[in-house]
Amino acid sequence: MIGFVIKRLLMLIPSFIGITLFVFILIHSISGDPIMVMAGERGIDDARRLQLMAELGLDLPLWQQYLNYLWDVLHLNLGKSFTTQETVWNEFMDRFPATVELSFFAMVLGTGIGIPLGVLSALASRSKSGLMRLVDNFIGAFSLSGYSMPIFWWALLLIAYFSIYLGITPVSGRISVIYWIEPITGFMLIDTIKAGDWDAFWNALHHLVLPALALGTIPLAVVTRMTRSAMTEVLREDYIRVCRAKGLSPARTIFIHALRNSLIPVITVIGLQVGALIGGAILTETIFSWPGIGKWLVESIGRRDYPIIQGGILLIAFLVIITNFIVDLTYGIVNPRIRHSR
User: Fold this and answer.
1) Low-confidence ranges of the chain (pLDDT < 70)
2) Secondary structure of the chain in the HEC alphabet?
3) Model's pTM, two decimal places?
């Protein structure tokens, strides 16, 4: 097991270096001058511009800029924002709880609905009833539509129907402006509970529903399809026939014996959906004006704020890598054949 862990850790090193190089090249490929963006409408003379370029290290050759950037990253120094002069780490942590809260509820929605739908679809596919076959086909079409639907289009449809046509959900934001909650943890629902303001809690939850629904659609579809596939395969195993022959109830056979073994690949897929959630959060937060790291990165791109863009993408990539690493280790623990085969 120790050898398996060491191998997985060593594989993280080229991934990390490759991400830093890719992000650096991508950011410096963006057209526009960050110094002129910082100056705004007031403009700036050439002498002052050259001085700022030297102070920010933008006058150095690109290879030297990259080595300096990599050296700073290895020393946990992600730099400061060009516009706010706040450290990238502080700005990231100010907005990270909002993204975690949104992604968590999106994943709860995806797994809470996706797993039952997958189980129902697997059972329906083995039934001889025409109605149950129709249910299986409907769930399959539903999951395929959810996976294929672009988030930005789906989010706009949700806003148009629930917010504009029905008027039952807010269009944007994290909480109404009439409430002020002291940011203790950064998680709005927890902070409203700690403040004892239940009206603010329900208002924050009301704001969370639509973005979580838009973001959780793809995980819901993926979990549904994976659960159906794994459950269908497990239901063909001999030990399921033994359970039925011993007279165990259908509910115990399905939910205790079949579902437990079906969840191994489903858990892996759930862990891999972290990257998809963060990628989708960029669009979702922008559309719903959700003050998370996705909206923060989009605004930073418009300002050509290189440290924010590089540091933000690097931190997100690091989170995804660590999550996949944990999932990989968990899968190796659950299924020993995996760690012995790698």
Assistant:
1) 1-5, 8, 30-46, 279, 330-342
2) CHHHHHHHHHHHHHHHHHHHHHHHHHHHCCCCCHHHHHHHHHCCCHHHHHHHHHHHCCCCCHHHHHHHHHHHHHCCCCCECCCCCCEHHHHHHHHHHHHHHHHHHHHHHHHHHHHHHHHHHHHHHCCCCHHHHHHHHHHHHHHHHHHHCCHHHHHHHHHHHHHHHCCCCCCCCCCCCCCCCCCCCCCHHHHHHHHCCHHHHHHHHHHHHHHHHHHHHHHHHHHHHHHHHHHHHHCCCHHHHHHHHCCCCHHHHHHHHHHHHHHHHHHHHHHHHHHHHHHHHHHHHHHHCCCCHHHHHHHHHHHCCHHHHHHHHHHHHHHHHHHHHHHHHHHHHHCHHHHHCC
3) 0.78
